[in-house]
Amino acid sequence: MRLEVLHVPDCPNLLPLLERLAQVTDLPVSTRMIESPADAERFGMAGSPTLLIDGQNPFAAGATPSLACRLSVPSTKQLREAINSSGSPATEILSTWRRRAVPLDAVTRTAHREVLRAFATTGAPPLGDATKALEELHELDAIRLTPEGEITVAYPFSATPTRHRVRIADQVDVYAMCAVDALGIAPMLGQDTVIHSTDPTDGSVITVVRRADSTHWDPAGAVVFVGADPGGGPSADCCCDYLNFFATRAAAEAWTTAHPRVPGQIINQREAEDLAVRLFGQLLVE
Description:
Elements: E1 3-7, H1 14-24, E2 29-33, H2 37-43, E3 46-48, E4 50-53, E5 66-69, H3 76-84, H4 90-100, H5 106-122, H6 132-140, E6 143-145, E7 151-154, E8 157-158, E9 164-168, E10 172-176, H7 179-189, E11 193-198, E12 205-211, E13 214-218, E14 223-227, H8 235-238, E15 244-246, H9 249-258, E16 264-267, H10 269-280
Parallel strand pairs: 1-2, 3-5
Antiparallel strand pairs: 1-4, 6-7, 7-8, 8-10, 9-10, 9-11, 11-12, 12-13, 14-15, 14-16
């Protein structure tokens, strides 16, 4: 999802709009200064500031191009509804969140990999006091720390039990934060995994076995629901509870019908595996 704000020079409502957007979404927001009627028509500015979502104005589609300053900006409720109904696939929103959580600094990146490898080899986070690097990883949402500084989440791993249990190389048992995270452990580590999860509608067991380059799902008709609330916040709070395995597409559709306020989409097995590779396949690559 691409968010862009068009504005004239010294627009008094630019900062209020950006502040409200920061309250409702973690997605990046770009700005573009418009200085002529021709540019207003070219880029679609219908008063300053104008929010575009994937190039479209969600509040005044087809409005007359204008350089005039707006008297007010959309409320946080209006902005959240516009982003939620934009039609951008939940998988793309999730990918954007996780890409922004990848540390770029060498020291922080090394600390991140040490945490992931500790989970992969012991099934638990490393011991020790919180460091500046861990605090930075928490701010990035690459990991989550308790108020006491203990690691409780290092996506894809959870330090506490979840409905998604993963056996790594027939040696180590870990918990994953969600269905996609569970699928991402094998490509991240380059090792075989066996996932045991449960359908949230009836508790039926879903098993996914990854051996070398082949994956076997049981039941064969199992799917994954991906829900990503663009309202913002840590993934652990805003989307991990939504990303679940379902034994059948019908079960997933029944769940979405019963939870109309949860934005997202049902994806098939291949799509879920591809998404997991996109999110986690490169995290431990030097």
